[in-house]
Amino acid sequence: MGGNRNCRVWLGDRRSRYRADSCTFGLLVTTSPFGTVPNVVAPLRHLPTWMSPWKKNENARHEREYNFFMDCFETVKEAHSKGESKPSYTKMFLEEQEKSGVREEEGH
Prior knowledge:
The chain has five helices and no strands.
């Protein structure tokens, strides 16, 4: 998939590309029209989370993806503080954050 390119642009290197591919695939399955049963049988979307294995799986996928993103963000942030970060979107965000005072949450 596009993990190689995405990691290059987003982080400045490709080391996390396989994990990024895994996250991308999980998102594609969730959003695909036939990815999960509630995408086909619409009333199942209204089940509470405790009754819906699909919502539980999506919440777990979202948590894994968020943790992955935060790990990558912190890695670039640490390299940036040492002056060792490679050109990337995250580096640009960190540089602009220093200038404009944008909150870190806005870059997530």
